[in-house]
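ok new one. same drill as before - structure tokens go in, u give me an amino acid for every spot. 284 of them this time. try not to just spam alanines like last time pls lmao
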């Protein structure tokens, strides 16, 4: 599918950063050339803000980028000059560090995500969302739920990304706020329905899986265009986007180990059906 404005902006920022590093410049040196702050260069390279065409031309000239490569980046800068998606109203509840992720999610060709202790957002049932946000003590629960439900539109695209989930058994047994069999039964039934969709693959990592250890949660995004593939890691204070080739490969290797130890789709469905029955019996 066509790239979003945000994906093109991030793509441009990535290309400018790699060109700068190849030329041996620091962000501060580039800031001095443009007469701005180092912080602005950092925001341009991260895709947080757009870059003026004049600034892009001056950067490429300083980096020694010419010819077809320079023209490609100039055209990309023009394409990235559109308006960013609207982040007002109920969408404004999305943390600024997560907005790049949600903007790029629909543009991805493949998304590989691992979660150890909670159900990932796109798979969450509305009941699970409500319980989670309420337990957090959020004051804008309705807006948070609406935004999370919006993300599910990624599954309804004409050509959705291949979305592959690996989820620890722990996430299926640890309900938000503690013991809540009704919430978890609803969640598991919801996951069984989503697993029937095109290009959605769910795999459970059971407690007895043969692994030396499990990593923290992470998501790998791959793109069909020039947007650089990256790994997203969320933590309590924000989120990190890693696109260095060596770093990226570390997480691909971690994904492969998890996938090798996780249940196949048929086994996952049987596991979920049995767990759903266990939760039903708790409600009797």
């Amino acid at each position: 599918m066509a790239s979003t404005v945000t994906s093109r902006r991030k793509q441009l920022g990535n290309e400018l950063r790699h060109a700068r590093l190849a030329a041996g410049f620091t962000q501060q040196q580039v800031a001095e050339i443009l007469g701005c702050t180092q912080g602005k260069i950092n925001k341009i390279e991260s895709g947080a803000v757009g870059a003026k065409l004049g600034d892009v031309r001056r950067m490429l000239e300083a980096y020694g980028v010419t010819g077809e490569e320079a023209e490609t980046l100039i055209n990309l800068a023009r394409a990235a000059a559109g308006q960013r998606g609207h982040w007002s109203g109920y969408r404004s509840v999305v943390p600024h560090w997560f907005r790049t992720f949600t903007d790029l999610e629909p543009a991805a060709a493949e998304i590989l995500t691992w979660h150890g202790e909670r159900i990932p957002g796109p798979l969450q049932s509305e009941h699970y969302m409500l319980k989670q946000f309420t337990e957090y003590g959020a004051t804008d629960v309705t807006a948070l739920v609406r935004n999370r439900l919006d993300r599910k539109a990624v599954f309804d695209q004409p050509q959705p990304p291949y979305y592959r989930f690996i989820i620890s058994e722990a996430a299926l047994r640890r309900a938000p706020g503690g013991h809540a069999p009704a919430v978890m039964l609803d969640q598991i039934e919801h996951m069984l329905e989503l697993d029937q969709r095109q290009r959605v693959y769910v795999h459970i990592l059971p407690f007895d899986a043969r692994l030396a250890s499990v990593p923290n949660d992470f998501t790998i995004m791959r793109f069909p265009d020039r947007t650089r593939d990256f790994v997203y890691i969320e933590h309590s204070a924000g989120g990190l986007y890693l696109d260095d080739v060596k770093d990226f490969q570390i997480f691909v290797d971690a994904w492969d180990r998890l996938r090798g130890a996780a249940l196949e789709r048929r086994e996952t469905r049987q596991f979920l059906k049995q767990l759903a029955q266990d939760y039903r019996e708790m409600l009797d």
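The chain has a mean pLDDT of 90. and btw The chain has twelve helices and six strands.
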